[in-house]
Amino acid sequence: MAVTTTSLNKQLDNLGIQDYLKAHQQRSLLRVLTCGSVDDGKSTLIGRLLHDSQQLYDDQLDALNQDTKGRTSDGDLELAMLVDGLLAEREQGITIDVAYRYFSTQQRKFILADTPGHEQYTRNMVTGASNSEVAIVLVDGRHGVMAQTRRHSFICALLGIKSFIFAVNKMDLVAYDEQRFEQINHDIHELARTLELSDINVVPLSALKGENILHNSEQMPWYSREALLPLLENIEVAAKEDCNTRFVVQYVNRPHQDFRGYAGTLSSGQLSRGQSVTLYPSLQQSRIQDLYNAQGHCQQVFAREAITLTLEDNIDVSRGDWIVPGGDEVTVSNQLHATVVWFDENPLITEHWYKLKLGSQKVSARISRIVHTLDINDFSRHPSDQVSINDVAQLHIELSQPVPVDLASESAATGSFILIDPITNATVAAGLVNQISRERAEQPSTELSFVIELQQLIRKHFPQWKLEDVADVIRKT
Q1: What is the pTM of this model?
Q2: Residue-wise pLDDT tens digits, 414-434
Q3: 241 in any annotated domain
Q4: Would you give the DSSP letter of residue 171?
């Protein structure tokens, strides 16, 4: 007997599945990051949230019980192993990669990003933070606020996260002492004042024992505010409203000669069919002929939708070009001031050429000046001639050609970038644009750009040749 769509939907209605799916779709989604210093219990906390909210399958629990490392010396489940998926992570009891876990309650859906606490994996922490709305910063109740706690809190604030939950973990190891919690609470609020954080909550808990996770703990009667999960369910996150409409072309879709569409994600704002638009950096103008989203042909599209659009005029549009409403002004420049977090083990080299990737566009970039570096302990600024791994620095960057760009404070998608080593293709830094120079720096010729990249390749693989720096040669002439 054939099963029709109508009969299948009727069966699902009888089982209540349709109602469940509709309710699930209507729940708001919250992207949460866990970060903090090494061994503060980030993975254990996520494992506890999954376990206590009954989001684990029986086979996962069985595998944990059967694993020789699946329990602590006290007989408690080693919940961190539910999150740490790499063999090296399980063997060493640390987090290396970013791990994403998904769960839901009656009020909300959650995406949890578990990030590493070790300094050498700060780049992975930045990856997790860049897509999060709330940061849970773990603090060990024995050790209090550490340097990595400060670094991670600063990076979260730098990347635009507004809502912070400081989870003072391992309270069981300090006998649930209220005085110890108040000392750490004071230090956290001092840190928050320094970073100008306005939306913060501080929760004492024990992820291993499950205290103050789902319900208020009997072990800490002196704490009367919300436990962690109810706080996550009820926390209000201000929507990130970007000022202007921005569409950056990611792909030119040309399946046949009669269709030329421009595909990408609408970073912010909205676009409508028939709307006049301006292309950057070419400044050509046209109108939107047709719009398509995941459902097909449409009249209007909104921020964060994956779309394809066509234009009325047959003009040259390439990957990385911007399409914005007609009349909107976009700054085009080849000089930027930016705050960066340096990832690479090799220090930054001024006058060295890197690849700067901003959205879908990639251009050559030279670090012309290190303005200052930031001391992560007191957030003071210091002049420096070197930027090392995990340093936060303010840089002056010159590009090989002018590109459209926004301030990161106005549009995160079109005001943030990564730097790539052109020789190794390694991502060496992530940055946010905080000032755009109206004066354009002198652009190197195409031939000079090639010579500079060739020089870098030779100096890397044949240092014995002692090749003179091209930039020095140019200055001498």
Answers
A1: 0.76
A2: 999 999 998 888 889 999 999
A3: no
A4: G
